[in-house]
Amino acid sequence: MNSSRSSLAFLLREGRPTVTLGTNRPQNFAETLPMEMSVRIFGELDAESLCSASRTCRLWHHIIEQSEQLWRRQCLLVRAICRREVDRDRRDGLSWKVTLVRNYSRCCLKRDWLRGCFSQVRSADELSSRKMTPLDAETWGEILQTELDR
Predict the structure, then answer these.
(1) Domain-by-domain residue ranges, the chain?
(2) 45-56-11 Cα angle (round to 5)
(3) CA–CA distance, 121 with 112 (Å, rounded to integer)
(4) Quick one: which of 142, 138, 134 has its CA closest to 103?
(5) pLDDT, tens digit, for every residue of 73-104?
(6) Which of 45, 133, 147, 47 is nearest to 97 (CA)?
(7) Global confidence as pTM
C-alpha cells in the first residue's frame, strides 16, 4: 500500500463510517467529500439501507432527504413492478420519496405473488409472518392470471 493510500483509512466507530485523513481525528466521510460524491455513495444502497442510513446522523439525513435523485432511482425500481401505482402517484404530484414510501410494501408483496411464493399456501396461518398490504382489482387480476398460467 503506498503512502497516499495509507493516510486514507476507513474506520467504523460507534456504528458510523468515518474517514481518517492523516490526522488522529476521524471524520464522517460526508463531511470531507463533496455533496455529489456522498449522493453517489448513497446511490449504491437499496431502499431499506437508504432509509437506515438517513437515521445515522443529521448530515446523512439531510443529504438523503434533499436528494430527489436517490429517491427517484429507488422509485423507478419499484415502478418496474407497480407501474400503474407509481405513475398515478407521480401524476398526482407526489414527490419521488412519498411515491416510494406509498408503493414499496405493495411492490414487494406483488413481486412475491407474481414469483409464485404463495402458490402452494394451504391456510392463512402460513401467511401470518408476512406483512400484507391492500392490492387493487387490476393487481389481483395480474396475480390470478399468472397463477393460471403456471
Answers:
(1) 3-66, 72-119+127-149
(2) 80
(3) 13
(4) 134
(5) 999 999 999 999 999 999 999 999 999 999 99
(6) 47
(7) 0.68
